[in-house]
Amino acid sequence: MKKMIIGAIVGGIILFAWQFLTWGALNLHHAQQGYTPKQDSVLSYLNSQFSEDGAYFMPTFAPGTSREEMEKQMKAMEGKPWAQVVYHKSMPGMNKMFMNMGRSLVVDIVIVWLLCWLLVKIPSPSFGTIFIGTLGTGLIIFLNMPYTLHIWYGSFDLMAYFTDTLVSWGVAGLWLGWWLRRGNS
User: Fold this and answer.
1) The whole model's pTM is what?
2) 47 and 89 Cβ atoms separated by less than 8 Å
3) What b/e string do you get for 55-90 counting C-beta neighbours within 10 Å, with b at 16 or more?
């Protein structure tokens, strides 16, 4: 159990550290967080249109739209602009950011602990089995969320997410491959 807990804590820190680097210092996800010099007027307009926090896909159908009307509207939308808007009435302060970072670290540790729990169920796993199992877990996560969302909504930072997967889960796999086998050779 001690081996799993230490493996999870260090593995979680590896994932968290890479997330911190990729979204902060390295700014690999810049394409998903583009700047527009019109941001103040866009935000002012959105604030005048939305009364509460929410996520919006435009254009879409009003609730209760018939199947026939949806098909007609979909045909009319083809080739025209569309947008996704995630709107919040208020930017959280630094305290909220630090709380979110703490929660993210805890989640990363739990994710790696669950993975360690699975990996130790394998009788005498090799370094390669643990490494590929860890990297494979990262690829499952990548394919399930960032890639599947990209299929439908065309994200602009898909390759950054792929890089995140290879680096963070690869390094975590190297760590777990060494740590979980330590003393078993």
Assistant:
1) 0.86
2) yes
3) eeeeeeeeeeeeeeeeeeeeeeeeeeeeeeeeeeee
Give how far the C-alpha of residue 78 lies from the chain's centroid of Cα atoms, to the nearest Å: 29
Which residue type occupies 49? Answer: Q
Which of these, 173, 91, 93, lies nearest to 132 by C-alpha position? 173
pLDDT digits (tens, 9 = 90+) for 52-85: 999 999 999 999 999 999 999 999 999 999 999 9
User: Tokens at residue 51, please?
Assistant: 């009364």
What does DSSP assign to residue 64? T
Q: What's the chain's Rg over C-alpha atoms?
A: 21
Element (H, E) at 85: strand 83-87
Token pair 């001690």 is at which residue?
2
Closest to 126 (Cα-Cα) out of 165, 176, 81: 176
Angle of helix 2-20 versus helix 94-119 axis, rounded to 10: 140
In which residue ranges of the chain is pLDDT below 50?
none
Only one residue has tokens 């926090």, namely 53
